[in-house]
Amino acid sequence: MSVNNINSIRKLLILGNGWFVGKIPLEYIGRHSCSGAILDEEDFELEEGIEELQNEFLSFSNSMYMILKNLDSKQEERFEFRHLKKLGIYRGNLNPEDLILTNSFERTKKYNINHWETDDEEYFLEFQDSWKGVYSEFTFQKGEIFDFEKFEFNVEKLDTGFHFYEWVCQVSYLGKSREEGKVNKGKRRKRLRIEKSSFETI
Fold first, then answer.
1. Residues with Cβ < 8 Å from 158, sequence gap 6 or more?
2. d(C-alpha 200, C-alpha 202), whole Å
3. Domain ranges of the chain
4. pTM of the full predicted structure?
5. What share of the chain is helix, strand, coil (3-state, %, to 5)?
6. Residues 90-106: pLDDT tens digits?
7. How far apart are CA 93 and CA 120, in angstroms?
8. I want to staple 136 with a disulfide (CB 3.0 to 4.6 A). Which of 33, 75, 120, 178 is the partner?
């Protein structure tokens, strides 16, 4: 019996590492010293509100791979990141083979806030939780066809707090609901941001 036998139940797992990205509103921000001068940003007093998860991204890099499991025969087949384009799973403009060593490609711009021209209510915290594990799962029942060409990749760049942007993606399968997989969260990174464009990028 082949792994992708249509007369069996199969599960496709997408694995790798990535980031949860969200926003934390501020209940209070103290930016001024006793003399009324604006403090250094690292000395601001912040009182956080309830966080809001906005996106989950999977690193579009060599850490990503897929496993097709036949739940009846217990057979497995693994699809490596570098082969996704050759197999027709990924059909975008990037070439995974070019991203095997690193997917960092462009220097990030420094995010500078003009605190003199910014009101307290404009501030919020952006958070990023790194993770490693199963990004998503898709189950195919008996009689269902598993088709490489039904995968859709939304690839974009993400500033993860280092000197270079990272290619990240969100993956869906046409006509299937994504089942969330199990991931292990790593370090959380929080950065002060503002709602409107009274900041400069360098």
1. 19, 21, 57, 165, 166, 167, 168
2. 7
3. 10-201
4. 0.87
5. 10, 50, 40
6. 999 998 988 877 777 78
7. 42
8. 178
Six token digits for residue 184: 């292990």
Look at residue 73 and give its three-state secondary structure: coil
Long-range contacts from 110-113, C-beta under 8 angstroms, 24+ separation = 110/201, 110/202, 111/191, 111/193, 111/199, 111/201, 112/199, 112/200, 112/201, 112/202, 113/41, 113/192, 113/193, 113/194, 113/198, 113/199
Q: Are 131 and 168 in contact (CB under 8 A)?
A: no
What's the CA dihedral at 35, 37, 40, 44 to 10 degrees? 70
The string of pLDDT tens digits covering residues 191-202 is 999 986 544 444
